[in-house]
Design brief:
Layout: H1 2-14, H2 18-40, H3 57-93, H4 98-102, H5 105-126, H6 143-170, H7 173-191, E1 198-199, H8 219-222, E2 226-229, E3 234-239, H9 241-251, E4 254-257, E5 264-265, E6 270-275, H10 282-290, E7 292-295, H11 305-318, H12 326-344, E8 352-354, E9 360-363, H13 369-384, H14 388-402, H15 408-428, H16 431-448, H17 453-459, H18 461-465
């Protein structure tokens, strides 16, 4: 249940209607409250202020009618501009970036402000009465409500000026890349070293791992496994980690996850394997199934690979023959290098997770430094290796990540990635471009092969960071 609530909250955050709806309801409540205040407390105090004259029925009605008509027109215009910007951005940078623009708070507040001002004016103008308009009742003008309506117009003008500046700045490619990169770095900071359960030292022969979950499991051991199957088809957007641990502890189970956030699953596929099978009852299976939130698209809620893929997609599109924009790809590589440099300084969690009592409860998908490197630089290598400018920047980004690595196995991962990149560049480039990229690749590989590789990389700052 918690997973579904978190998914709903994320959908509301990314929706283009939720915040404007809240603002519209707030405007209607504000209008009703101010009209009530005007009707129960005379506003003759305005007559004592020569610079603030009380409005008359005809003037107030005309003013609010003009405000309402203009606001709904401006709201339609801003919506059209937003849709045009979204269409342009999704076509240029990739359709998966559409949610980034739909969830933009500036666009939501702009639309909400104009709609709220329109509804406010509509409600207030309905309460204005001219003399003799209704038999037995005197004229009524909600002076305070009219004054607040004028203030809302001033706020709407300020928001319109903000919107005119906001839209082109938000669709600027560097701003798009910056938002994705910032979110990626923030997710790395939030997720590591925080993860589901308590970490356990992972060993292949760990006696706490049931025989059914080992590579050499026999038929008898496998028969003690029970499968929890999906009832929906789509992408796993969220896994309620606490619910998995609690359910496994309450029923004496050990779980092995078959998927991780961002993976695609279909009806009937196995989400979780549970051991022992006899302890998995219907209630436990229902609770485990409810811990997975499945939707039609990937999100960045728990999927650290998603912002990486977004940066890779932008860079790959920029390097396509139809666009041929290596500098946009360079910006993506800069942010990927910054994020993975941060990741290189952190300990990644073991796939073995325990409850508060130290008992093994969940066997999750392993998170490896090599996997993230391959997801970022490995996916871009086929494109970047065919361009001299981007190829040099890709090697520089690998060198920047190496400066943050202290573990020899992670340095070896970067060396293998640089070697693979060199082989691709050797086949894809020719002439002077080929010689330039291969020379830098050789410099990087030579530095990584030495014990004092950090000093050697720092001494080569001219080639590491001089391609901007």
């Amino acid at each position: 249940m918690r997973a579904r609530l978190l998914r709903i909250a994320d959908h509301l955050r990314e929706s283009y209607w939720f915040l404007p709806s809240i603002m519209a309801v707030g405007a209607m409540l504000l209008a009703a409250g101010l009209v009530w205040l005007d009707s129960h407390h005379a506003t003759t105090w305005m007559d004592r202020m020569p610079w603030l004259q009380a409005a008359r029925p005809d003037g107030a009605r005309s003013l609010l009618s003009s405000i309402g008509g203009s606001m709904i027109g401006v709201a339609g215009t801003t919506f059209s501009v937003t849709i045009a910007a979204v269409v342009y951005a999704s076509g240029q940078y990739g359709p998966r970036l559409l949610s980034n623009f739909m969830s933009d708070r500036g666009n939501q507040v702009t639309l909400g402000t104009f709609i709220a001002t329109f509804l406010y004016s509509l409600i207030v103008v309905r309460t204005i009465r001219s003399p003799g308009e209704i038999a037995g009742e005197t004229a009524f003008v909600p002076q305070l409500a009219v004054l607040v309506g004028v203030l809302l117009v001033l706020c709407s003008i300020a928001v319109l000026i903000f919107f005119i500046h906001h839209v082109p700045s938000r669709i600027h490619i560097n701003s798009v890349i910056e938002r994705i990169g910032d979110r990626l770095i923030a997710e790395i900071d939030n997720r590591f070293p925080v993860f589901v359960g308590q970490p356990l030292d992972e060993r292949a022969d760990d006696p706490r791992i049931p025989a059914a979950f080992r590579p050499d499991a026999d038929v008898a051991a496998i028969e003690r496994l029970a499968a929890v199957r999906a009832k929906d088809t789509g992408y796993i957007q969220l896994i309620d980690e606490a619910a998995l641990i609690d359910t496994a502890r309450d029923h004496g189970l050990i779980l092995r996850l078959q998927y991780q956030p961002g993976d695609f699953t279909h009806r009937g596929s196995v989400l979780v394997e549970a051991w022992p099978a006899e302890d998995l009852d219907d209630d436990a299976a229902k609770a485990l199934r409810a811990a997975f939130a499945i939707g039609s698209r990937r999100t960045a809620l728990q999927d650290l690979r998603f912002p990486i893929d977004e940066l890779v997609e932008i860079a790959a599109r920029a390097l396509s023959p139809g666009v041929n924009d290596p500098f946009t790809a360079n910006s993506c590589l800069d942010w990927l290098g910054a994020a993975l440099s941060d990741l290189a300084r952190r300990d990644l969690p073991s796939r073995l997770r325990a409850d508060d009592d130290g008992a093994l409860r969940v066997i999750a998908h392993p998170m490896t430094f090599a996997g993230f490197i391959d997801r970022a630089f490995g996916a871009l290598a086929q494109y970047a290796s065919a361009d001299m400018i981007t190829g040099n920047r890709c090697l520089a980004a690998l060198g920047d990540v190496a400066l943050s690595c202290d573990a020899p196995d992670r340095v070896a991962v970067l060396a293998r990635q640089a070697t693979a990149f060199r082989e691709l560049a050797e086949d894809a480039l020719s002439g002077a471009n080929r010689r330039a990229v291969l020379a830098r690749a050789d410099q990087l590989l030579h530095a990584l092969a030495e014990p004092d590789y950090k000093r050697r990389l720092r001494d080569r700052n001219a080639w590491l960071g001089g391609t901007a």
